[in-house]
Design brief:
binds tryptophan; mainly alpha; 18 helices; 76% helix; Amino acid/polyamine transporter I; single chain
């Protein structure tokens, strides 16, 4: 039965390591690259408030649900769903949800690795002092020349995948656990240093705080809510089994709701701190956060680092932070499929090599679509990179999240779920969570889904 089942991959040595690993998955390019430019583009504080509501009403309950499936199943998402649906007397076709997640992980990691490669390249550039005194034009050109060069993009994408392969192949304890216990403290120290600089050195900290926390709801458009919700999914790593597989390695006696609360709190805190680190620097240089769009981090910030005092050191710190965050997130995208292949027989090293190799190949197509294959459209108006991002983020993640909420909320027996959560099924906390998971979260996700299909404007 469920209680006797153990993980063949090993376990985290404590609940704290699970929290670090899942926070490492959640905190990534989504927080440091995507969140700040979305806030900039969507008018600041009003967007922040809507985003926080989405995190609380959709993200937190679905995160609890995803961890619950993983810990009861104790396997890769595909085999966990097989085991749990058997325990609960439900159709074995629920394992297709695991396959959906594996597929989403392939697509996401193939473009994530390309951007992770950019972050690594920018670490090198910051070390070489390339930003010192750089003009706005030159910063734009540095980025475009790099992204426009197939060889450069492929080299750095390859390096990123090799790092991930090395960590995943070494296993749960010796690979993933060791990486997060080393890298996550580093990440938080760097982030706090950058926020500290933003507070101390620029007169613009107040301006940044006002921008992020004094809402002007007239700036809100219908699409804003839906953008905020999509970001909530992506930033919490929900809907593809990454959090599920990490939950499979969580020791039995650790509280799922409490762990989820920490993960969600730290991810949200990091996104807000990233804003408090980046916006003062941008304002102090007399620039606007909405201008750069996706280029905010790779074009606007280097210009700023080239101007301000301590810019050389701050630039290095920032791009190391970005790279570390990308690596600990990328790991969680590679783990579900690797765990599955390992369970089907053969060594973990072989499994990791096969999966990482396939994703590396797909990533090459993403990288080349930014330059030599730029005119090839996989979907109308979208190159390979944009198409993979669209299909995975806007379709597969919401669909996965919706099915996870339905499976745990409606298909698992209430007392099994309550037992896994360590709560009485009559307690107020459990009842509240169940209500949100059954009704509120699915309804909200359906709205995102309609938006992604373009049926809803925005
Ligand atoms: N959450 C990560 C970020 O914000 C990205 C990520 C890692 C992810 N694993 C995931 C997104 C699983 C969706 C699903 O950068």
């Amino acid at each position: 039965m469920a209680d006797a089942r153990g993980s063949i991959h090993g376990e985290w040595s404590s609940g704290l390591v699970f929290i670090l690993a899942a926070t490492g998955s959640a905190v990534g390019l989504g927080n440091l690259w995507r969140f700040p430019y979305l806030v900039g583009e969507n008018g600041g504080a009003a967007f922040v408030i809507i985003y926080l509501l989405c995190i609380l009403l959709v993200g937190l309950p679905i995160m609890i649900a995803e961890i619950t499936i993983g810990r009861q199943g104790r396997r890769s998402p595909i085999n966990s769903l097989l085991a749990v649906s058997r325990d609960e007397g439900r159709s074995r076709y629920w394992s297709l949800l695991g396959w959906l997640g594996v597929a989403a992980g392939f697509l996401i990691l193939s473009f994530y690795s390309v951007v992770g490669g950019w972050a690594l390249f920018y670490v090198l550039q910051s070390l070489l002092g390339s930003f010192q005194g750089i003009t706005a034009d030159a910063a734009g050109e540095l980025f475009e020349t790099f992204v426009g060069s197939p060889v450069d993009v492929l080299i750095w994408h390859t390096l990123f995948m090799v790092i991930l392969f090395g960590i995943i192949a070494a296993g749960v304890r010796k690979g993933l656990q060791r990486a997060v216990t080393l890298l996550m403290p580093l990440l938080f120290v760097i982030l706090l240093l950058l926020v500290g600089y933003g507070m101390a050195a620029s007169g613009a900290f107040q301006e940044a705080v006002a921008f992020m926390f004094q809402p002007d709801f007239s700036a809100v458009e219908p699409g804003t809510v839906l953008t905020a919700m999509g970001q909530a999914f992506f930033t919490l790593s929900l809907g593809m089994g990454a959090i599920m597989v990490y939950g499979a390695y969580l020791p039995r006696n650790e509280s799922i709701p409490r762990s989820a609360g920490w993960i969600v709190g730290m991810d949200t805190g990091t996104a807000l701190l990233a804003g408090l680190a980046i916006f003062p620097i941008v304002f102090a240089a007399g620039m606007e956060p909405g201008e750069g769009g996706p280029g905010l981090v790779f074009v606007t910030l280097p210009i700023v680092f080239g101007e301000i005092s301590f810019g050389f050191a701050l630039g290095i710190l920032f791009f190391v932070l970005l790279s570390v965050a990308a690596v600990t997130s990328g790991m969680s995208l590679l783990e579900p499929a690797t765990a599955y292949l390992t369970e089907q027989g053969g060594s973990r090293i072989r499994a990791a090599a096969i999966i990482a190799g396939l994703i590396w190949l797909l990533g090459i197509a993403c990288g080349l679509s930014l330059n030599v294959w730029g005119d090839f459209h996989l979907l109308p108006g979208m190159n390979v990179f944009d198409a993979l991002e669209f299909v995975s983020n806007d379709i597969m993640l919401p669909l996965g999240g919706l099915l996870i909420a339905i499976f745990v909320g409606w298909q698992m027996r209430v007392h099994s779920v309550a037992r896994e959560l360590g709560l009485s099924d009559e307690s107020t906390g459990f009842q509240l969570w169940l209500f949100v998971t059954r009704f509120v979260a699915p309804a909200a996700v359906i709205l995102v889904f309609l938006n992604a299909l373009g049926l809803f404007g925005g």
